[in-house]
Amino acid sequence: MGLRFAAVIAACPRPAGRLSSGMVPLPDRSLDMPLSTAQSLGWNLARTMMTIIVLVETSAGYSVMPLDEFDGDPACIVCEYDPFNR
C-alpha cells in the first residue's frame, strides 16, 4: 500500500521530528476515525486555514483535505466546509 500524506497543522502526540516540507506520512490508523470526529476536524481546519475543506469517505474510512488538493471522485465527498459561507 502506498504512503498517504497530510499537512501537519497541530502538534501530534508523537513528534515526527523536523520536517522540511511540512508533510508527514500518516499511519494506517489515521483514516479510521468516526464520522463525528472527521466532521469536527473538517470544520476546524476550514476555519483555521480559511480555505474550503472537503470530508471524503474512502474504503479505509473518512478523511479531510483542502478542496484544491482533492483529485478523486466527486461522489466520495460527504461534505464541504466553506469558512466564508456560513
TrEMBL record:
Protein's name in the database: Uncharacterized protein
Species name: Sphingopyxis macrogoltabida (Sphingomonas macrogoltabidus)
